[in-house]
Amino acid sequence: MNKKIARLRRAQLTRARIRLNGCNRLCVHKTPRHMYAQIIAPNGSQVITSASTLDKEVKAQIKYSGNIAAATVVGKILAERAKKAGVTKVAFDRSGFKYHGRIKALADAAREQGMEL
Q: pTM of the full predicted structure?
């Protein structure tokens, strides 16, 4: 089993547990260069809001898109957009990634803006 398959197995388990709760989920994906985050409805087919390091609003605030500072900006902007959409409580889906570094920075930034994870 390679690294990617192991991560995807962890992600499946997490998503199955979140599906049982029936709440919105904050799904995060990272690559070495970028960070992506979406809030997905309980049915799994509707994206309520999203933010990434590719957005113009985020690009204006960051120097490099693959670090903790960029993840913090993405978390803040995502939380602001979620408030406008009327979402305050979500389940955190880290997509099988370890909860440290950029993933943790994004979650902490979203919490600071009033999101309940």
A: 0.93
